[in-house]
């Protein structure tokens, strides 16, 4: 929900998003651990985990699109560079979280879902895009 002050609208940062909008990473981890203990995902778990990672990827792309739109409102070069650094750092944290999920699955010898692989590739590209924007402005 946007914040309005004196007629100016500001969108909250990603870390300020309401918990109800956050993907259920704890459930995804629990499903992965359960699959690891049994050697593979059940068909229901596989369906859920594929949809989960696809939804997270879609959400990351939407957040990036929102970040690009908010960047257009910033006029100061230094402020814009700092903004893109913040975005790069946030996406990098999400990338680390997904790489940890990959490592967990690998540790259990459970095949990596294709949607997790795609999500990691997307996050890698988003981090690079944000860092590239930052470099252009620094």
Strands side by side in the biggest sheet: 1-2
What proportion of the residues form beta strands (DSSP E)? Answer: under 5%
Q: What letter string, H or E per element, gives the SSE order? A: EEHHHH
What is the CA-based Rg, rounded? 17 Å
Distance between the termini: 31 Å
- Which outline best applies? elongated
Helix content: over 70%
- Please tally the β strands and state the result: 2
Oligomeric form of this entry? single chain
Please give the domain count.
1
Largest sheet: 2 strands, antiparallel
- Number of separate helices: 4
The helix-and-strand class reads mainly alpha
Low-confidence stretches: 1-12, 14-20
Mean pLDDT: 86
Detailed description of the structure:
The chain is mainly alpha-helical. It has one domain. Helices cover 71% and strands 4% of the residues. The protein has 4 helices and 2 strands; from the N terminus they run E-E-H-H-H-H. It has helices at 25-38, 43-71, 77-107, 114-137; strands spanning 3-5, 8-10. The protein has a two-stranded antiparallel ribbon with strand order 1-2. Strand 1 and strand 2 (8-10) form a beta hairpin. Helix 1 runs parallel beside helix 3 (77-107) and helix 3 (77-107) packs antiparallel against helix 4 (114-137). The longest helix is centred in the middle third of the chain and has 31 residues, at 77-107. The chain starts with a strand and ends with a helix. 21% of the residues are buried.
């Amino acid at each position: 929900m946007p914040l309005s002050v004196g007629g100016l609208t500001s969108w909250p940062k990603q870390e300020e998003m309401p918990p109800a909008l956050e993907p259920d990473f704890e459930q995804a981890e629990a499903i992965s651990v359960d699959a690891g203990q049994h050697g593979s995902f059940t068909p229901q778990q596989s369906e859920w985990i594929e949809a989960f990672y696809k939804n997270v990827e879609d959400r990351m792309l939407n957040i990036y699109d929102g970040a690009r739109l908010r960047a257009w409102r910033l006029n100061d070069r230094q402020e814009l560079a700092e903004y893109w650094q913040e975005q790069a750092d946030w996406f990098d944290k999400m990338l680390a979280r997904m790489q940890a999920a990959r490592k967990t699955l690998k540790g259990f010898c459970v095949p990596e879902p294709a949607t997790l692989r795609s999500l990691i590739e997307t996050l890698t590209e988003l981090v690079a895009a944000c860092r590239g924007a930052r470099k252009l402005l620094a």
